[in-house]
Backbone:
């Protein structure tokens, strides 16, 4: 049993790393299994299809990222301090990958949204759920900031969407220019979008 | 000669449409030629490689988009009116594609930036040049708006970058949610990012 779940984790880990590096479409099951060091025959024991594997990769990544977001956004400090902390952690995460392997890998969800959302409905729906959840989490903090009079924005939900869109847009440029520093202005942009006092 | 350039245009048109629908990595030369209705042998008469074709698709698309941006941003009206006009045209363009084929295709440059920037340096560099040019064009208008006292932002270049990032982020969500309406809040977000009076 230990070895079985180990093989599943190896496939998931290899798939995530390959998807981050080269996208989903160009990958084949044989290549994923080779990178994972598991026999190709075992793939379909764990995953019904390549699409099912991609969904599992997305779910595992979101489970980890969601924990981080909850920890930061439900943590100590004023609402704006917590939101700032989220951006700082995002920048630090992209910087750590860049320092380790020389490239900014960007946002797995944003990458797959642009690569796949017009191709597979199950992946599109899963990514919609994830970005809905991100907007909801930011929205809760923005609402709290507004109640305290820290921000002046009136449509708090639209402002939360704009903040998440700004994050995705700047992460795109951090990846394109292979420069984690591109994320540094995020906080000032976020304050502007929220009409911070 | 007429037929020769016709075949090149057919390949370019088919490639652009396939790349918009399914990305670059998953495409093969044979498939592109089949969609273009030209013999596979003729492909390498026009293009050295699939990468060379992708660069030609990007160049052709940017030449057309650049003309549109110049027309709008150098056109009539105050700086902010022209910038608003650019966003309205962008939304109208995404809406027209959506009305025609049922899907928001998003931004070809943003799509390729996330799919390819860590895989092919020539495409990365070309996309960097394009986004640099977009930021430069927005920057000129923001500078003009600042000189008139219409916006309060101090770092006009960083603000121009934030505006282009907001555009890419919101276009990502328009594609993911297959909803051109997602672009409607762009203008208010832009005003906030610029500190418009």
Residues:
């Amino acid at each position: 049993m230990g070895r079985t779940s180990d093989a599943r984790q190896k496939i998931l880990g290899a798939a995530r790393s390959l998807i981050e590096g080269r996208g989903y479409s160009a990958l084949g099951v044989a290549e994923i299994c080779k990178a994972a060091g598991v026999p190709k025959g075992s793939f379909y024991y764990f995953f019904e299809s390549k699409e099912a594997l991609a969904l599992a990769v997305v779910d595992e990544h979101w489970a980890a990222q969601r924990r981080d977001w909850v920890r930061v956004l439900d943590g100590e400090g004023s609402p704006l301090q917590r939101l700032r902390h989220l951006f700082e952690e995002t920048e630090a995460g992209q910087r750590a990958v860049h320092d380790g392997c020389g490239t900014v890998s960007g946002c797995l969800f944003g990458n797959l949204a642009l690569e796949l959302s017009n191709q597979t409905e199950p992946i599109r729906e899963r990514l919609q759920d994830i970005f809905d959840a991100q907007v909801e989490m930011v929205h809760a903090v923005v609402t709290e900031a507004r109640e305290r009079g820290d921000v002046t924005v009136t449509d708090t939900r639209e402002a939360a969407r704009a903040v998440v869109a700004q994050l995705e847009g700047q992460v795109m440029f951090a990846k394109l220019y292979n420069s984690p520093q591109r994320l540094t202005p995020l906080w000032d942009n976020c304050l502007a979008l929220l009409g911070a006092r």
Chain A has two domains: 1-47, 51-194. The longest helix of chain A spans residues 121-147.
